[in-house]
Amino acid sequence: MKLILSEEQQFLKDTAQSFARDKTPTNHFRKLRDDGNAKCWDDSIWQEMVQLGWSGILVPEEFGGSDFGIAGISVIMQELGKTLTPSPLLATSVLGVSTIKLLGSDEQKKNYLPKIVSGEATTALAVDEGNHHSPFDIEATATLEDDKWILNGQKVFIIDGASADFILIVARTSGKKGESNGLSVFIADKNSTGLEVSQISTADCRNYANLVMSNLTLNAEALLGEVDIAGEIIEQVLDLGRIAMASEMLGNTEEAFEITVSYLKERKQFGVLIGSFQALQHRAAKMFCEIELTKSAVLAAMHAADENSNELERLSSLAKFQAGETLHLVSNEAIQMHGGIGVTDEYDIGFYLKRARVAEQIFGTSEYHQARYADISGF
Amino acid sequence: MSDLEVFRQEVSEWLEENCPPSMRTPLVPEEEVWGGRNAQYVNPESKLWLERMGEKGWTAPSLPTEYGGGGLDRDQTKVLHQELYKIKARPALNSFGIWMLAPCIIEFGNEEQKREHLPKIIKGEIRWCQGYSEPGSGSDLASLSTKAEDMGDHYLVNGQKVWTSYADKADWIFALVRTGPQEPKHSGISFLLIDMASEGVSTKPITLISGKSPFCETFFDDVKAPKENLVGVENSGWTIAKKLLQHERNFISNFGLAGGGTGSGADVVSIAKKYLGEDNGKIAHPSHRDNITLHKMKEHAFGLTLQRSGDEGGKASAASSMFKYYGTEHNKDRYELMISSMGNKGLGWSEQGFSDDEQAITKAWLRTKANSIEGGTSEVQLNVISRRVLDLPS
Ligand SMILES: Cc1cc2nc3c(=O)[nH]c(=O)nc-3n(C[C@H](O)[C@H](O)[C@H](O)COP(=O)(O)OP(=O)(O)OC[C@H]3O[C@@H](n4cnc5c(N)ncnc54)[C@H](O)[C@@H]3O)c2cc1C
């Protein structure tokens, strides 16, 4: 495994970079927020991404995608992360696609994947039920009655949940809370009766929802693949999501750092540029080191995913951990080094802080991944 | 089979045949090999191992064969290291000559200097030391004042160096000397090679907190150094000096990886399990376990960064400051974690009450404190990153 991008991956990254700079600079996000856009993405921008093939990057060619791998979608997320560009890429094109691809029957793949590729449908993945990410702590149940699946329970903090056309719901078909066995995934239309979706309002102003299932009744075909055996696949899908997320967070970090270093070179106090103060220089230099480590961890994790390496779990935890720690550090330092202007809404840097903390929570905080890494490594 | 795989097989067969059995056992400090005119081999197999590796040029695998190096490309070098690692081979030769000086002679030396010095470095026949720091010039190295006066066919050297590692054991020294006393401080420095056997050179050992005495004060009193031993152009030694520091820093960076550098070779996780106990196979104490996990994750990411830098083409640049800073701070952290995991067993000084391994860890812990000082302090590395990489104003 070489820790560099292939030519095609680099090309994709460059394309995404121009896209973000030209079409969705940070102001694009500010406008979505100010307009109170509930989806928190712009449909025409999403359609442009679809045209570029980004919606189908993880979709096999036979279903209309390009099968370009996690590295492909991660470098796009990294570039979009720099300008805080919201899009359905994570929930739909990583989580939705991977769940359907890894779990679904041929029939189901044929049914859903092309719709995702064409931009006709978006999805959301409903896993967590508590205040902290814990993918197997699932109490929501699904029982089979007269050929119908009846789902009951609740889900929280579902990315893009407020607008997704289809919601992939992880429910317990056997076993107890905490076990990875006995989990199954169901695909439900957002308008199903018995499914109550309520948008929640978070500091990063993106699209999340909680949902309550009260005798949500689904046809037998709503079960993705087989019953009871989705646990491992969900973990795998989450690992892919973690890597894509870590990549976006790396982009957030790089840009927040860049903005801050530029500020150090233009703001004067005591008659000199504040960037000449060694107290600030050394902190900036330490952030630089952490960012370099993050780049390597993310790169290694995405290659591991694409090469089906048995190091995937460890590397995905390492990437999410390192990206989380670094973004945490940089988002705080960025504010502090800007002084008063850093805590104004008018200035963009605060957006990075608010996005950072939510991103750190998604699919497990640094603490979560530190514990997971320790267990996997046998410490 | 690819060419590289063929090469791997050849290497593996050669090592199988030529690496003596005792050279595949964990290194004991007394058997470390540094070569040189006065080298003593406690274990005769280490001499044999050096001779065989030196003959192949594999002590310096990437240097050109015409000067005795291995002539291997980047990928082949990596394969060689992997194969050596696989059989747990000890380093055949530790050498400032290879780590620091040889790449600079290749880049800045003339043909005669290459033919004279490189083969002896690679075979471990001549041992080198580094004469940079002076009592008044540490971090501000360019303020150095050891002077070298032009006497026609030779320079007359007078002054003092300090912290010269292994000066008492070395055969030659690569020294920074002031040849242009009137020039601005960076533009009056030359890079001079001096035979330690020359009249007027003397050394005096300094004892470290670890109890060891690997370095010295070095004095030059009217030492005659032939002109042919000037590397590069007179008064432009600073460029060479900085380049050499990059090689030094890159080398020291490896201390950041477990098992790299001047450590005791002990692994922090096994140490913690041994001294704190295990609970279902886990380090029994949760906060120690957390601290160690954090450390190991940073190490993993750091190792990947070294690898990435290699895969990107591994230019020695300002990145070497990052590696030096991070790697040495990390190595210090490792030993703090190690001795704290060991409790009162981590503070032994001599054999009364402590095993050899335990004492070695205490000593290594103390030795690591110098990692973030030698080769330029951590603060200096952060300055370099700020100025050269981030382009922040001074
Ligand atoms: C084990 C060991 C081996 C060594 N081997 C050799 C050798 O073989 N050859 C050789 O030539 N030298 C060698 N050295 C010397 C080493 O390079 C110097 O010790 C080092 O450069 C620091 O210089 P100093 O000790 O004079 O400390 P100082 O320069 O006096 O530093 C004291 C403190 O001030 C800080 N400081 C200084 N300047 C700045 C600044 N601009 N900004 C912020 N902080 C600053 C430093 O970081 C440090 O914390 C060795 C040192 C050690 C410890």
Report on the architecture of this protein.
The complex is a heterodimer of chains A (379) and B (394). With 379 residues, chain A is α+β, with helices and mostly antiparallel strands. Helix content of chain A is 50%, strand content 15%. In chain A, a hairpin with a 2-residue loop joins strand 8 (268-269) and strand 9 (272-273). With 394 residues, chain B is of the alpha+beta class. Chain B has 3 domains: 3-94, no CATH class; 128-235, Butyryl-CoA Dehydrogenase, subunit A, domain 2 (Beta Barrel), CATH 2.40.110.10; 242-389, Butyryl-CoA Dehydrogenase, subunit A, domain 3. Helix content of chain B is 43%, strand content 15%. Chain B has helices at 3-18, 44-56, 74-86, 96-108, 111-122, 237-253, 268-276, 286-311, 319-342, 356-368, 378-389; strands at 128-131, 147-150, 154-165, 172-178, 189-195, 201-206, 215-226, 230-231, 278-279, 282-283. In chain B, strands 1-4-5-8 form a 4-stranded mixed sheet. In chain B, helix 1 crosses helix 3 (74-86), helix 4 packs antiparallel against helix 6 (237-253) and helix 9 (319-342) runs antiparallel to helix 10 (356-368). Chain A binds chain B through residues 2-4, 261, 264-265, 272-273, 275-276, 278, 281-282, 284-286, 288-289, 292-297, 299-300, 318, 321-322, 370-371, 373-374, 377-379, and chain B through 269, 281-283, 289-290, 292-294, 296-298, 300-302, 304-305, 307-308, 311-312, 319, 322, 325-326, 379, 381-383, 385-387, 389-394. The structure holds flavin-adenine dinucleotide. Flavin-adenine dinucleotide binds next to strand 1, strand 3 and helix 11 of chain B.
